[in-house]
Write a structure and sequence with these properties.
It contains 8 helices and 3 strands; from the N terminus they run H-H-H-H-E-E-E-H-H-H-H. With 203 residues, the chain is mainly alpha-helical. It has a 3-stranded antiparallel sheet with strand order 2-1-3.
Length: 203
């Protein structure tokens, strides 16, 4: 069954309809289409020709991770871009304060990461140590930590803001922060058995 693009009816403050439409309906949908194309091609390839220097099998396996992560990261991004900003409450707010001392300190680090990264910033729970981290990805399939649970995802590729802000990334990040849906982020955290994660991380 081919993958289908998800529908995101979003009108974030500080991002124009043209910016969102190009990002969502052209770029994101393009990743979904390419993922389907890669998976279809993979089914037809002869695995006996696989080679680490170059082979069609190597090409599709590398680009599979790029396209798949491109789809998933964009879906997380659009989904958490549906709120009114503010601060997280409940368990997520507690964990952020525990790790950074305050929401303001976390926000400062998250925004700085947005200026430093070339692709994505992800606030994620690491299953390895049971802590929240702000991770920096230069591409969909580069520098991706293993065994993490994405909580908040921000796209910092130029395509996410160039129509509205040109090369000025900082005001785009400010606009992003005003549209975070913390309820969505909290629900992502709730998918995890936190007590078990903390127990295993401490052992």
């Amino acid at each position: 069954m081919p993958h289908q693009p998800k529908k995101f009816d979003i009108r974030p403050e500080g991002l124009s309809e043209a910016q969102i439409t190009n990002h969502r309906d052209i770029l994101y949908v393009g990743y979904v289409n390419k993922l389907n194309e890669i998976e279809e091609r993979q089914r037809k390839l002869d695995t006996s020709t696989a080679n680490q220097v170059f082979s069609d099998w190597r090409a599709v396996k590398i680009e599979e991770s790029f396209a798949l992560n491109g789809v998933i990261l964009h879906e997380y991004y659009f989904e958490n871009l549906t709120g009114k900003g503010g601060k997280p409450t409940a368990k997520l707010g507690e964990l952020i304060s525990r790790e950074w001392g305050s929401f303001e300190k976390w926000s400062e680090e998250f925004k700085a990461s947005g200026l430093a990264c070339r692709g994505w910033v992800i606030l994620a729970l690491s299953i390895y140590d049971g802590k929240l981290h702000n991770f920096c990805l230069d591409a969909h399939n580069e520098k991706v930590p293993i065994n993490i649970v994405p909580i908040l995802v921000m796209d910092v590729y130029e395509h996410a803001y160039f129509l509205d802000y040109g090369a000025k990334r900082a005001p785009y990040i400010d606009a992003f922060m005003k549209n975070i849906n913390w309820n969505i982020c909290q629900k992502r955290l709730e998918r995890v058995d936190l007590d078990q994660v903390m127990k295993e991380a401490a052992s």
